[in-house]
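Troubleshooting: if your tokenizer reports a length mismatch, compare against these two reference records.
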Amino acid sequence: MAFNFATFRTRALTAIVFVLVMLTGLLWNQWSFLVLFSVIHFGCWIEYQKLVGLIDTDYREINASHRYGIMLAGWGYLLWMTDSSYQLGNISFSTIGWWIFAVSFISFIVGDFLFGKKSNPRLWAHSFMGFLYISISWGLMMRLYTNLHQTIFTGANWLLPVILIASIWINDTMAYLVGSFIGKTPLSPISPKKTWEGTIGGALLAVLVVVLVGYYTLHFAIKPLLLISLTGAIAGTLGDLFESKLKRMANVKDSGNIMPGHGGFLDRFDSLLLATTVLWLVLYFAY
């Protein structure tokens, strides 16, 4: 295939902007972190509802109370999971989030009964699945912020999310490289380009890099580094496969086109969605 400079330039510029936006949101302060994942939350929801509408055409006819009520309930849950560093005067964002969650969830339920043309358990199940898949994950990301109240590492609030994201990025990169050179055995028909050799090699190299850099350069404990990198590699790969399955069922290549050359929100954050929830569970039981 001939090299396409225009496509390469588009992908490169989009990648640079994406990295700059992510680093700003992750590292600036707690407010930029909240804004970043609030935007990602709604972006993921919009694309998820579009994909489900392609898979189940009845879902396209859900009323506005259902469509936006579940999104706002999810965002309320995200705010509910924030800690005491998020305050509006004397009122915590956690309290505000609880009320947004409660009111929006009631609106979602009642409004669907009153105005829904297609109110049935199957359509509710699609939305509840989205809540578990998207909103629970980004809510727990707010829990990971501040190092679970500094019980894992000593240092910046953003350490846990950044190490998890770095683990996933290293795993994806190494899996691609290893798979390109020695990959022969397909991992799953869901994603034919992935191989067992690339998946295993990527996971091992991701764990090795994160542990060595974290231990010898940053002097972090080995146990949390192992837990985070293993979770990022394993759960991240499963998250990628899950989103690939959704796209196959919807018969689309990308979940969206918000990032030219790179797809949509779900395409960019599919691995992190599942890995965040799994990592919170792992750390909850480990510590």
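Reference record two:
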Amino acid sequence: MRFRDRADAGRRLATLLLPYRGHETRLFGLNGGGVRLGYEVARALGAPLELWVAREVEVPGERGARMGAVAEGNGFFVSAQVVRATSAPATELTRGMDAEAGQVALEAQRLRGGHPRMEAGAGTAVLVVEGIAAGALSVYAALRGLRRQQPRQLVLAAPVGAMEELERLRLEADEVLCLHPVWALLAVEHAYDDFRELPDIELRQLLDRARELRPGREVLEAGTSTEWM
């Protein structure tokens, strides 16, 4: 299964999340791509949408080697295997995590503008991502940040994902929903025809439009089109 773009993937993913319409559901789009998918899901469910920022952290001095990730809500994930294998001092590792946490806060502030961050609340929090490839460290950190807000239920939703990684993530979320599980996925972009980077202005516009959605509004006109199946 391939997706034309993130909007197409979001509309298809919405069909899996229809049972969560109501139930005090709040959607959180992971970084830019997750916001684009999340907007389509928000339209279908009539649920509020928020941005959720996470960033992966490289091992200091080892370009391309990722040791973990940080996310909003004090979400942290560290790969014990990578940390054991590196020769970098613990102080440098901690400094690297703290530096990326600062970048997470700046990015979130830039994209939200003057709007306060929506909290997960006491209902169902759904983290929407554009896909889950092998070693999706930022997804772990994002889920942990949301978990700290103590929602009644924490759900992870993705249009495509590597089966082995999906199984691991079941330890972090109460439910993991994936439209198209695959044996291997080295890069999420391989599942999309159009995977262009989304400019900040487009993301801010999507968030503004999502804030105008009325709870309970049903706008899934094309969500069950057979051309997507």
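Descriptive notes for reference record two:
- The two ends are 9 Å apart (CA to CA).
- The first helix runs from residue 6 to 17.
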